[in-house]
Write a structure and sequence with these properties.
22 helices, mainly alpha
Length: about 525
């Protein structure tokens, strides 16, 4: 598949993710309106994180790493019977595992809450336990959704596998809009929202099943470990689950630290994380997800040069978007937060707290996005140990940085930013280890031409940041009391247009496609 074809596939993935993420941000906007950044918001965020850890261990990430490469190779071999047997065996094993874990999670909810959110006061811990019991069955449903996504991506059906997540968010938005004004208190509303979250997961699966049935045939879950590919997949899953388990430990440590910070810290991290991960999902995840089936086929054919070129092309495409996103979040983060969240119970104090966390996350956007692509290259090469070592090292660094910053500042509203900064620093350690390993196996990853392109991206983003700052000064002088939702959109638009124009003038082909202009030839 050509680089242009990879770009088209990434565009399709990105479009699906964009739809789901935009609706997800609307869900966050509605959540912020009704909950703000108080105790109920913290309880819901903590309760969602606990079962979501199991989903992350067995869901989309693990299946993309361990299942998609093997399933894709069976399809490439034109062996649909073996591919179908593998798909049904994996489905059966996942359903069995998640059923057991769900029962254990529901029963152990009070213990989990006590361990992971010890800093909460007693009413908040009780609410967290109650919400966890409702949300834990969502684990199995979302793992099944991840299996559906793996089937669709292996058949190069990218759009609906990602866009269907919007249905999950829509169920929650409808609940908030209908029940929000009627709820007696925030605890009651959070309980209703938990049930809507569970129902939304069921609707998301229902939306994906018709295409999955068409692609993979009738669903007949088995526990057949003798099916071709099952045992290699299980062996591959172990290091992937271990690596993701390390990440989840870090996530739980973050939750534990945040529970001792001022009320609203858990919610502030969630709000900032949803916004910061938008460019990572749109461009890092989309490029990595679109590339993985082809990377797997290339590695299977030992076409290492093709694999290297895919990594290089995908990396430049990711950087073109995440670098200006990081600059925008740092320079204009208050507008980004206010546009999405500033209403109802979410006021100026909440906006300031989330802005600090967003700025800290922005420092790691380059690594967050790049790690997704380089990790996919390792999975395509059937190397799962290197990402595991990288994750373990980066998480240790992340925890150390988070504790050293957040704990001394624990009495201040900005303390939560220390947790985000720890994640950013740890992610760069992850990136360094992955890049060094791939360079040894494939050769030079980042060529002189790529460095030149990155320099142009940085210059264009810096110019756009300067223009955004000047527009901010003008807005504060002429329209100081206008809601940021009205003034922020034109300023962010000015930032984006400036970035594209400057990047195009400097010879960017990606900017030329956005502006529908011919690529300008520049001197090296």
């Amino acid at each position: 598949m050509s680089d242009a074809g990879g770009g088209r596939a990434a565009f399709v993935v990105g479009t699906g993710i964009l739809i789901s993420r935009v609706v997800g941000l609307l869900r966050q906007t509605a959540f912020a309106y009704y909950f703000g950044a108080g105790a109920a918001a913290d309880a819901y965020g903590a309760a969602f994180k606990i079962p979501n850890a199991v989903r992350n261990l067995l869901g989309e990430g693990t299946l993309s790493a361990a299942f998609v490469p093997l399933y894709s190779r069976l399809l490439a071999r034109d062996d649909p019977r073996a591919a179908r047997a593998l798909a049904n065996a994996v489905l059966g094993l996942l359903l069995a595992a998640t059923s057991v874990l769900t029962l254990v999670g529901v029963a152990a909810a009070p213990i989990l809450t006590q361990l992971l959110a010890q800093g909460f006061d007693e009413p908040t811990r009780e609410l967290t336990t109650r919400l966890t019991r409702v949300l834990f069955p969502m684990t199995g449903l979302m793992v099944l959704s991840g299996w559906c996504l793996g089937i669709q991506n292996s058949h190069r059906r990218f759009f609906w596998s990602y866009a269907s997540a919007a249905i999950w968010s829509l169920a929650q938005i409808v609940l908030l809009l209908v029940a929000g004004p009627r709820a007696a208190d925030m605890a009651t509303l959070s309980y209703w929202l938990a049930w809507a979250t569970l129902g939304g997961a069921l609707l998301q699966i229902g939306a994906q099943l018709p295409e999955v049935l068409r692609l993979a045939g009738p669903l007949r879950p088995t526990l057949d470990r003798a099916a071709e590919g099952v045992m290699p997949m299980l062996r591959n899953m172990l290091p992937v689950i271990t690596a993701l388990g390390v990440v989840q430990i870090s996530s739980f440590v973050d939750l534990y630290i945040a529970s001792f910070l001022p009320s609203g810290a858990v919610a502030s991290i969630g709000y900032a994380n949803a916004l910061a991960l938008l460019p990572v999902s749109l461009f890092g995840v989309s490029v990595a997800a679109a590339a993985l089936p082809d990377l797997s086929r290339d590695s299977g054919a030992m076409a290492m040069d093709a694999l290297l070129e895919r990594v290089r092309g995908g990396w430049q495409r990711i950087l073109f978007y995440v670098i200006p996103s990081a600059v925008a979040f740092i320079v204009l983060g208050d507008y980004c937060v206010a546009i999405l969240y500033r209403a109802g119970r979410f006021g100026a104090a909440e906006q300031a707290a989330v802005q600090w966390v967003l700025g800290a996350y922005a420092l790691g956007l380059v690594s967050f996005g790049s790690v997704k692509l380089l990790g996919s290259a390792y999975y395509a090469l059937q190397d799962y140990r290197t990402p595991l070592r990288a994750s373990m090292t980066s998480i240790a660094v992340s925890i150390a940085v988070s504790v050293s910053i957040a704990v001394p500042l624990r009495s201040l509203p900005i303390a939560a930013a220390g947790i985000a900064l720890g994640s950013a620093v740890g992610s760069y350690m992850n990136l360094a280890i992955l890049a060094r390993g791939l360079r040894r196996r494939l050769g030079t990853l980042y060529t002189a031409a790529m460095w030149q392109g990155t320099r142009r991206i940085v210059i264009a983003a810096a110019v756009a940041g300067l223009v955004g700052s000047l527009l901010r000064v003008a807005q504060q002088a002429w329209l100081p009391s206008t809601h940021p939702r009205l003034t922020g959109l034109p300023i962010l638009a000015g930032f984006g247009v400036t970035y594209l124009v400057v990047a195009w003038i400097m010879g960017s082909a990606e900017a030329a496609r956005w502006l529908r202009r011919p690529v300008r030839r520049t001197r090296a």
